Amino acid sequence: xxxxxxxSDTVTRPTPAMREAMFRADVGDDVMGEDxxxxxxxxxxxxxxxCEAAVFACSGTQSNQMAVRLHCIPGDELLIxxxxxxxxxxxxxxxxxxxxxxxxxxxxxxxxxxxxxEGRVRVNDQHFCRTQLxxxxxxxxxxxxxxxxxxxxxxxxxxxxxxxxxxxxxxARLFNALVAGNYTPAEVAGCxxxxxxxxxxxxxxPVGSMLLGTxxxxxxxxRIRKLFGGGLRQSGMxxxxxxxxxxHHVNRLADDHLHARQLASGLQQLxxxxxxxxxxxxxxxxxxLAPEVGTAVQFAGAMRDRGVLIGPMGGQRVRVxxxxxxxxxDVQTTLTAAADALRQGFRDRPVQGKGxxxx
Length: 359
Prior knowledge:
Blueprint: E1 4-5, H1 16-23, H2 36-49, E2 53-57, H3 60-71, E3 76-81, H4 85-88, H5 93-98, E4 101-105, H6 114-117, E5 130-137, H7 150-162, E6 166-171, H8 174-181, H9 185-189, E7 194-198, E8 209-213, H10 215-227, H11 236-248, H12 253-268, E9 273-274, E10 284-289, H13 296-305, E11 308-309, E12 311-312, E13 317-321, H14 328-344
Parallel strand pairs: 1-11, 3-4, 3-5, 5-6, 6-7
Antiparallel strand pairs: 2-8, 7-8, 9-10, 10-13, 12-13
Helix pairs in contact: 1-11, 2-11, 3-10, 12-14
């Protein structure tokens, strides 16, 4: 039985055309700067965003932590939303790898605005951490796939510059934001000192991320990548997948957003499901199960029995994610399975597995 996997967009598999591009990739030693396909990808992405340079990395966690290490020294502090991936799902890396304190802030939809940040920069005193960096996430993950308005990015950017802070964007799903938000890569890049993007989510690549910034910063970031164990050799095969995705998989993200809205609309009609956002902006759908129905983990087990994998986030909360491997027919199959699971009941089902799914 084929499983419909809605746990995350990280589960995507390379298409046949992407596999062919990987097979035919021209490769060299990337640590020596001699992999032509990696070099091509880095130039391609830097030009796309209007940045001076880019560095290919193994994962979004790695590229984010390269940025933290680049902008901060041990004892510094970064400001970030309390639901962000950097502070929740990167294994305490800011502290472990860079000696950096994470100061979390609230804000609707996983987003920060100037009103959330004002008054949070510590005074210059030997007793305190030095507030050095602001990190945003676009789209938001636990915030429900929300897209920052460009005006809000520009507002936060101007505030951070005036406060003397560096600015980093976790753009794990930035291409979803670009498609839904109707702004350009260069407009976003103009708001930040560094940006990380991910190729292994909606773009459908097996591996890969990228950090973008100035040439001077990326030279330092390349050294940090090596320090963190991320120096790759013949990685052109991975870069070829990313090039193919950028050429063929960006515009189709709108299909994923449509499927997410269709899924949310259908789930809203089912008794026992609540808490779906009134507007689904990208490819993430969160919902709550009524307590009398059962837990998220129990529901996930019942759905798996029906050929659908979903993401229990703990308690009653569930996340489902649409992506390149999920069709319109899969959405309808999922809704049929959910209706059947709720009708049959699963409250007495033994609890197996756990959540949350971080990405």
